[in-house]
Amino acid sequence: MKRRSALKTLTFATGGGVILPSVLFAACQSEGYQPLFFTKKTIDLLNEIAETILPTTAESLGAGSLKVANFIDVYVAECISVEEQTKLQTGLETFETTCQKEAGKSFMKMTKEERHDCLIRLDTIAKKSENSHYFSALKSLVLFAYFTSKEGAEKALRYLPIPGKYKGDYPIKQGDKAWALG
After folding, report:
1. Are 71 and 145 in contact (CB under 8 A)?
2. d(Cα 152, Cα 56) in Å, to the nearest integer?
3. 157-180 CB burial, b ≥16 within 10 A, e <16
4. How far apart are CA 72 and CA 150, in angstroms?
5. Contacts of 67 by beta carbon, 8 Å cutoff, 6+ apart
6. Which of these, 36, 67, 144, 174, could form a disulfide with 77 (CB 3.0-4.6 Å)?
7. pLDDT tens for residues 79-135?
8. Tell me, what DSSP letter sits at residue 59?
């Protein structure tokens, strides 16, 4: 009897391991997504920040259009330390306060140019910071979420679903896309 229940448990665990990730990623993209760590308002803000960092082009959708904030929310809730979670949370609160102080309005009410300029200033501050800055972590999360998505890998990068032989000295021209292999 123990063998039968062990086999049943193993079967459910294996099936869950195969099916669960695809269900989670689909849930991140759905309209009815329920945040795990951030609030819905913060998720909207993160999508706008992400869209400003990686905007929609003729070739591919932007990061905000892909709702990378949903993935970031799951990632922050499940994969990073409490210290890093706190740094991101307080950083985003500081970000909104700074936008109000400098521009007189929230990031969500700024024009595209104002948003771009705001993020450029913040990125400059983050690069000059001696300690790890929340914006550097946030920007890394946006890039990670975007380029690991199907749309980001297939449209924004050169995508080969089945790569050919190894070619170590491949010529790359200035402005070429990076590679994403299947």
Report:
1. yes
2. 11
3. eebeeeeeeeeeeeeeeeeeeeeb
4. 16
5. 28, 29, 33, 47
6. 36
7. 999 999 999 999 999 999 988 888 889 999 999 999 999 999 999 999 998 888 999
8. S
